[in-house]
Amino acid sequence: MRYISTRGEAPPAEAPAAILRGLAPDGGLYCPEGFPALTPERLAAMSKMTYTQRSAEILGLFLNDFTLEELSAACETAYLDFPVPVRAVDDKISVLELWHGPTCAFKDIALQILPELMSLSAKKLSDGRRFHILVATSGDTGKAALEGFKDRAGFSVLVFYPKDGVSNTQKLQMTTQAGENVCVCAVNGSFDDAQTGVKEIFTDAGVNKALAENNIVLSSANSINLGRLLPQVAYYVSAYCDMVGNGTLSAGRKLDITVPTGNFGNILAANYAKMIGLPVGRLICASNSNNVLADFLATGVYDRRRKLRLTSSPSMDILVSSNFERALFHLSGGDAELVRALMSKLSADGIYTAPAALKRAFDGELTGGWCDEKRVSETIKSVWEQDGYLLDPHTAVAAAVARENLTENPMLIVATASPFKFTESVCAALGAEGDTLEALETAAKQTAPGPLRNLGAKAVRFTSVTEKSGMKEWMLDRLVD
Ligand SMILES: *Cc1c(COP(=O)(O)O)cnc(C)c1O
Predict the structure, then answer these.
(1) Any catalytic annotation for residue 107?
(2) What mean pLDDT, rounded, does the chain reach?
(3) Nearest Cα to 99, choosing from 297, 315, 344?
(4) Which of 68, 133, 282, 339 has its CA 20 to 30 A from that of 251?
């Protein structure tokens, strides 16, 4: 299977090259040229498999440059201690918990396997360079990338985070990171400053030349990489199998799915699952107060010209959803010229309007909704009191939007983070005394996930802070002589 750029001006690439590149050379995103078929028989056969086997099967449909043995081994390594369970919340709603990985957020699912896929890709292309993974993070991605790439031969990781722009838990998670090939540095500025600084490093000819002389190449692990997107398709298929298995769903019946959305990677994976044949009914895109996507789905107008609101679901505080470009491409029937026009309008004017046919295609595929901060808090409280289920603020956005969009189908809500990662907001919502991990453990009568406990007792390894203007030198000092 070949992968083509959403902007139509780059040659098609095989999967290994697309995974190592991330972004296509024309600035577009790589998309599968066609969608493989998951037949009902194959879906039924998967019900007896483990999560690891299911994910290797699904990856195998898309990544036929890799053998099933290679993919199975990669999935074994990535998902060894990583359950991906579905829990029934009430008789209508189930939750797919994606946060049982090492950093307690759903990005682990992709970032535990991306390093495996990158190593395999480099081997296939006989690319012996060292890959330096450069990340700007608002919290979750940085830690997940550090965990994914730590001590991996042929790779090193550097994470820049905004000094005062991540939660205490997230900061500690990163600054105590183990591994000989990892590095973490705070930037005196906002997430946007860190991200702009990283983008400048990627396009800096001097930096790239200096690295090339040392046999190093910069790479990114952000959510537009195919190697992050495709592994996410598997958990939708797996959840469907589990729900048929536990009797919540009869085989072949449609399942509605609500996804808390930021960069549109998670929900796009659900859309891919539907396109290969998973019986999905409504697919609901849930936004927080940064409701650009909800507005687009209602009106066909994408308008980022608004102030970014900082919410209790920071991983969804996004005005330009990078993976949305792939949805535009697929739902316009692969019209790269149209995608190019819309993307250049977005960067020039901050706004574009979908042509009528594209708007109709979106209407047939996706439902939008959003939830303000007050309702996030009320939802955490009411779901806890009525159903005894503890939601994190991101998942609560989805739960609130899901409740407004119930049909006759069962509903699956995607849970993207452990509530113990956001104890301040969750404690406040519950009206608990205090706002620490221990306070939430007491209020919710449950213990926090292992990786979040005793974070305070771990030694801090990384204390550096740089100005935005110094990011480049900071990196080069540590990489080249
Ligand atoms: C990244 C993230 C999201 C948003 O996912 P996208 O794929 O960017 O839409 C939602 N919740 C949490 C906890 C996240 O870390």
Answers:
(1) yes
(2) 95
(3) 315
(4) 68
